[in-house]
Amino acid sequence: MKLIYKALNIPLRILLHLTHPDMQCFLGILIPQVICVRLLLAYRVTIFLYPVFLLLTFVITYISFGKFVEYDVMHENILVERVYAFFLKLYIENKNKYCFTQIPELYVNEKIEEYNEQFQKTMQDRKNKVKKEETRIPSFFDLEYEKELKFFGLYNQDFDLRDLKREKRNLVKLHHPDQFTDPSEQNEHRVLYDLTIRYYNTIVKNKKF
């Protein structure tokens, strides 16, 4: 029987690596890419279109996987971690069958509990963040300068001068009229550029940072 347990050690170790959360994420993104390449080769798609399809496949896969994890955590399943915890326990229990140095059962439970606690904390943090965003009441400053703050995407949010400067830099870079050649576009973005400067000065002047 010990020979059987020793023979199982290698495939169980491989499964343990394959079911690690990081490896699951990697395979979840890699496999669709491989399928995409196989289909492109089968349909003899022009080579310069490969990066477009591969990038599109990556984006769709990444978003889908993210939504799956978010749904999984929201419903307290933590499927990715439970799969890994199952093979971890199976591997260590199999190792106990033939090793002279027994790995305590308590170690297995502690490892599983450690992963559960980690993801329970992550899930709770996400719930608290969503709850905080839903229940946050705008301040008097938010109500008074609603138009200016919404222009920078900072309405009803905690922010400091560094955050405001960062948003200002992004908008100035986006709407600087010198980067446009068409006169109508220049006029349109010049208005937004001027608003960026004016709203920034208004907020800095009236908010106590």
Key phrases:
209 residues, mainly alpha, 9 helices, 79% helix, flat
The helical percent reads: over 70%
Biggest beta sheet summary:
none
Number of helices: 9
- Mean pLDDT, nearest integer? 79
Strand-residue proportion? under 5%
Mind telling me the C-alpha Rg?
27 Å
According to DSSP, the number of beta strands is 0
The global form is flat
Q: Which spans of ≥5 residues are poorly predicted at pLDDT below 50?
A: none
Alpha-beta classification: mainly alpha
Q: H/E series, N to C?
A: HHHHHHHHH
N- to C-terminal distance: 71 Å
Summarize this, please?
The protein has 209 residues and is mainly alpha-helical. The chain has 9 helices and no strands.
Descriptive report:
With 209 residues, this protein is mainly α. 8% of the residues are buried. 79% of the residues lie in helices and 0% in strands. The chain has 9 helices and no strands.
